[in-house]
Structure formats: structure tokens, C-alpha cells
Design brief:
With 191 residues, the protein is α/β, with parallel strands linked by helices. The chain is 34% helix and 23% strand. The longest helix is centred in the middle third of the chain and has 14 residues.
Length: 191
């Protein structure tokens, strides 16, 4: 199995906002999954966090990886950057790419072991991802929300709507138990 340090050495060169600490937790979650587990990432952009799953799979761990992103951002280079990354390093790694919004995924994906939500940061976008995907996470599965605790230089939340929506969906009355916040990444375990 590839080590975190080996994965980080590669991933650190990929643009994105995921910190080393957040990537380490993501790596630990992935290597702890059972063989054949399903991972869904909503919001891939350049592929910084997705490279963790892809490297672990390339090192021999069987994973069912689904990457969802419409690549519809103002930075037009993200789509070509990600595809170049795949062509150069991960062509032999099986995964499914969904070039669409999360609500438009046409494949029936069930029994998700790890759901990573880092897509549309609007309240409506976060609600759409939660409504459409949280119920598909297995008991004992995990959902990770990036930018949950991201802060402005003055210490205020950069995306308060993410925290508000996630707190509503993953409250103490729900089927989710918090695994805590690492930098700006919140994780919840499904009970």
C-alpha cells in the first residue's frame, strides 16, 4: 500500500485548497475502507483530493471511484488540467467520471462508503448534494464536507452557508455522528 507521504509528494503539486492535514485524514479514511468500497467525490476541479483515491487504487486497493464535476467554473483550464493528470498518471486506474452536476448523474450509485462533498458552495447547491446523496451512504460510511470551516483572514467563516446547511442535515438528531473538523474539512460517520 502506498504511504501518505508518497501520495502527498505527488498531490502537493496539484492546485487546490486542500491542506496537508485534510489530505492526510482523507488518505486515512480511504485506506481504512474495505476492498471494493464505493467512493463518490462531488466537486473535483483540478483533482487534488481525487488524486488520493486514485493513487491508493493504483497501488493495488480495489475501489469503485466516481468523480462528479461539471467543470463549469470561470477557470477554463481546470478541465484540461484534470484530463491531462488522468492521461499522464492514472490511465490504468478504473474509475467513472461524471461530467455533470451532481443531481444529473445518470448511473445508479448505491452503498457509498465515502462521500466527499466539495461542489457548489451555494446553500441550494449544498442542499441538493445532501438531499441527493446522504441517504446513499452505507451505515458505517463517512461523508466529508470540504470548506465547512474555511475562514477569512479576520477569522469569520468564508462559507457560513456550508456550515449552516451541514449542521442542519447532520445534527445530533440525525443518523450522523461528527468525526470533528480538521482545518476546513468536517467529517461525519453514519450510524
Amino acid at each position: 500500500m502506498i504511504s501518505f507521504n508518497e501520495t502527498y509528494e505527488f498531490t502537493d503539486d496539484i492546485p487546490g485548497c486542500y491542506s496537508e492535514t485534510e489530505l492526510r485524514r482523507l488518505y486515512e479514511l480511504v485506506v481504512g475502507l474495505p476492498d471494493g468500497a464505493t467512493i463518490v467525490e462531488i466537486g473535483v476541479l483540478y483533482g487534488r483530493s481525487a488524486s488520493i483515491y486514485l493513487q491508493v487504487a493504483k497501488s493495488g486497493k480495489p475501489l469503485n471511484i466516481h468523480l462528479v464535476d461539471p467543470w463549469a467554473v470561470s477557470e477554463s483550464d481546470t478541465y484540461s488540467y484534470f484530463h491531462d493528470l488522468i492521461d499522464r498518471y492514472f490511465r490504468d486506474v478504473p474509475f467513472t467520471m461524471h461530467n455533470c452536476l451532481s443531481e444529473d448523474v445518470s448511473v445508479d450509485i448505491r452503498e457509498i462508503s465515502l462521500l466527499h462533498v466539495d461542489g457548489d458552495h451555494s446553500p441550494e447547491g449544498i442542499e441538493t448534494d445532501c438531499d441527493g446523496w446522504l441517504h446513499l451512504v452505507n451505515v458505517d460510511g463517512v461523508v466529508v464536507f470540504h470548506d465547512y470551516g474555511a475562514k477569512n483572514p479576520d477569522g469569520s467563516l468564508l462559507y457560513p452557508q456550508i456550515k449552516a446547511v451541514v449542521d442542519d442535515y447532520c445534527s445530533v438528531e440525525s443518523d450522523w455522528m461528527t468525526m470533528g473538523v480538521v482545518d476546513s474539512q468536517a467529517a461525519y460517520h453514519k450510524l
